């Protein structure tokens, strides 16, 4: 099974391009971020014509996550327990949840499409929200693993963090002043490994970025960053036989500023006695 994640930066703008890529690259399941539309606005027909079912979660023209799959999807969830909300200028426990998380189960594998808050600036309330959001995700993912230690589980998406200096090539990001590279963000990202998740792509792709800003010729200069990930539980990582970053999707007409990240799973030897979940 070939699974992928891609921040498409407005699916209505890039539906034909994304669907063409799915077919061309023989992708079974794609988690998308920043779809920027409500489910009823999603260009579903383009994907159905290509053989894919759509599950989407979007509330307005911002954020939004979705899955396209040619295999059955079950156990759909549009948030995770403890997921914090955000509303500019407001505080409190009852803030509205943004459309940033979507979970599905495919062939016994649990997949989450995640669009982590950007953080904006280090002194912005959105930065605190970002760290709180990640902490809640980590804690809930830890609980999932504790309840189902043999679960193949992947947290896929745009994490808006470059976890090491090797993952940051954009000179406009300044240590000590910029988000994405601050120590609290990097520590938070590292904490997912501490609780049992692995970056399943880097062992197969030792270098390379997944995002290049549209401005300042960032892509021709290769001044990008690696902020899109597939983090897998040990049971998921054990299934991964190959991975790739599809850099060429940043080329051509009207590309997203992100590119797809792909992992190939070998499900032929999975344990048929593994308990079903969700």
Could you please describe the fold and organization of this structure?
By secondary structure, this protein is of the alpha+beta class. The protein contains 5 helices and 12 strands. It has helices spanning 11-24, 44-49, 125-147, 183-194, 234-237, and strands at 2-7, 29-33, 53-57, 65-69, 74-77, 101-106, 109-115, 153-158, 197-199, 228-233, 240-245, 261-265. The strands form 2 sheets. A 6-stranded mixed sheet has the order 3-4-2-1-12-11. Strands 5-6-7-8-10-9 form a 6-stranded mixed sheet. Strand 3 and strand 4 (65-69) form a beta hairpin. Helix 3 packs parallel to helix 4. The longest helix is centred in the middle third of the chain and has 23 residues, at 125-147.
Describe the protein's topology:
Layout: E1 2-7, H1 11-24, E2 29-33, H2 44-49, E3 53-57, E4 65-69, E5 74-77, E6 101-106, E7 109-115, H3 125-147, E8 153-158, H4 183-194, E9 197-199, E10 228-233, H5 234-237, E11 240-245, E12 261-265
Parallel strand pairs: 1-2, 7-8
Antiparallel strand pairs: 1-12, 2-4, 3-4, 5-6, 6-7, 8-10, 9-10, 11-12
Features:
about 280 residues, alpha+beta, 6-stranded mixed sheet, 5 helices, disordered C terminus
Radius of gyration: 18 Å
The level of helicity is 10-25%
Helix and strand run: EHEHEEEEEHEHEEHEE
Q: Which of globular, elongated, flat, extended, rod-shaped describes the shape?
A: globular
The total beta strand count reads 12
Q: Strand count, sense and closure of the main sheet?
A: 6 strands, mixed
Name the structural class.
Answer: alpha+beta
Strand content: 15-25%
Distance between the termini: 20 Å
Q: Spans of 5+ residues with little confidence (pLDDT < 50)?
A: 272-278
The average pLDDT score comes to 95
Please tally the helical runs, counting DSSP H or I stretches of 4 or more residues: 5
Order of adjacent strands in the largest pleated sheet: 3-4-2-1-12-11
């Amino acid at each position: 099974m070939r699974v992928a994640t891609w921040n498409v930066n407005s699916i209505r703008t890039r539906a034909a391009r994304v669907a063409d890529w799915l077919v061309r690259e023989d992708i079974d399941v794609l988690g998308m971020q920043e779809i920027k539309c409500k489910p009823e606005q999603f260009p579903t027909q383009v994907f159905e014509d290509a053989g894919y079912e759509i599950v989407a979660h979007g509330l307005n023209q911002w954020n939004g996550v979705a899955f396209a799959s040619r295999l059955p999807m079950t156990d759909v969830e549009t948030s995770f327990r403890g997921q914090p909300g955000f509303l500019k200028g407001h505080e409190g426990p009852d803030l509205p949840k943004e459309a940033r998380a979507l979970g599905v189960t495919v062939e016994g594998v649990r997949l989450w499409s995640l669009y982590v808050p950007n953080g904006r600036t280090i002194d912005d309330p959105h930065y605190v929200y970002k760290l709180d959001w990640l902490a809640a995700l980590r804690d809930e993912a830890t609980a999932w693993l504790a309840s189902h230690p043999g679960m193949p589980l992947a947290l896929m998406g745009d994490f808006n963090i470059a976890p090491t200096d090797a993952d940051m090539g954009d000179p406009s990001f300044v240590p000590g002043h910029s988000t994405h590279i601050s120590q609290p963000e990097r520590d938070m990202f590292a904490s997912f490994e501490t609780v049992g998740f692995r970056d399943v792509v880097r062992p197969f792709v030792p270098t390379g970025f997944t995002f290049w800003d549209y401005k300042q010729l960032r892509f021709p200069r290769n001044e990008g960053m690696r902020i899109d990930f597939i983090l897998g539980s040990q049971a998921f990582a054990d299934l991964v036989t190959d991975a790739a970053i599809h850099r060429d999707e940043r080329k051509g007409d009207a590309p997203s500023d992100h590119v797809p990240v792909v992992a190939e799973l070998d499900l032929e030897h999975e344990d048929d006695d593994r308990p079903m979940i969700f």
